[in-house]
Amino acid sequence: MRVSVLLPAAGQGERIGRGPKAFLRVGGKTLLDWALEGFAWADEVVVALPPGFRVDGLKTVPGGQTRQQSVFNLVQAATGEVVLVHDVARPFVVRPAIERLLQAVRATGAATLVVPVPDTLVREDDGRYGGVIAREHHRLVQTPQGFRRELLWQAHQQARAAGIAFTDDAQLVRWLGHPVALVEGDRRMFKVTYPEDLILAEGLAQVWNS
Ligand SMILES: Nc1ccn([C@@H]2O[C@H](COP(=O)(O)OP(=O)(O)OP(=O)(O)O)[C@@H](O)[C@H]2O)c(=O)n1
Ligand SMILES: C[C@](O)(CO)[C@H](O)COP(=O)(O)O
């Protein structure tokens, strides 16, 4: 099955505050370049770019105002039977985790990488320590998330028609009624979200050799 990798890269990076994150540099390369290198093996790569940005030699689509809108444009343009949607904000692509994900997508049609919750997890009650949530029953969701393209396209079209907004694509597919398999991710595939994450990413970039 042909695999299209879809890279939403159109965010404004407001929590870091240094412009669109895809073009920030760690280890001498932009976050977008890290992702492109990590998926160089794919049959097709499509990138959603922020307004006003161009990158020569790439298949691109315009980014939307939300991640969901950017991914809608990406899925519409994809040609592979399987699509992997991956945040460019997660620059470190760990190949064994990708292989595990692809195996699950081929078997089930929809899967996402997840990692365990490493800390005690608690509900906040007006600034106070509320009930503790059983962390062994919870996972943190990473990307890539993989789907048969037709399934994800159906989910995106129906969510748009219903005016429903989700923070990731696995929610969309689950909302459509299709189960999503959980696959062991890798903590190195963390999302660069806050300024201090750039320091962590810089450190990891120095020892990265895959
Ligand atoms: N309108 C948007 C918003 C986000 N993204 C992408 O979705 C991924 C996850 O988003 P996030 O980490 O929230 O990135 P930003 O939106 O850039 O960050 P912030 O929320 O701090 O502005 C990123 O690769 C980002 O580029 C996108 O393609 N289009
Ligand atoms: C898709 C995602 O990375 C899964 O954890 C996450 O939902 C993106 O969240 P963000 O707030 O758009 O960074």
Query: How many domains make up the 3D coordinates?
Result: 1
Topology-level CATH name: Spore Coat Polysaccharide Biosynthesis Protein SpsA, Chain A
The SS-based structural class is: alpha/beta
Percentage of β-strand residues? 25-35%
**Gross morphology:** globular
Strand arrangement across the biggest beta sheet: 5-4-1-6-10-7-11
Major sheet attributes: 7 strands, mixed
Radius of gyration: 17 Å
Q: Are any ligands bound, and if so which? A: cytidine-5'-triphosphate, ligand LQXTBERG
Helix content: 25-40%
Keywords: Isoprene biosynthesis, Nucleotidyltransferase, Transferase
Function: Catalyzes the formation of 4-diphosphocytidyl-2-C-methyl-D-erythritol from CTP and 2-C-methyl-D-erythritol 4-phosphate (MEP).
Site (Positions MEP for the nucleophilic attack): 135, 191
Family: Belongs to the IspD/TarI cytidylyltransferase family. IspD subfamily.
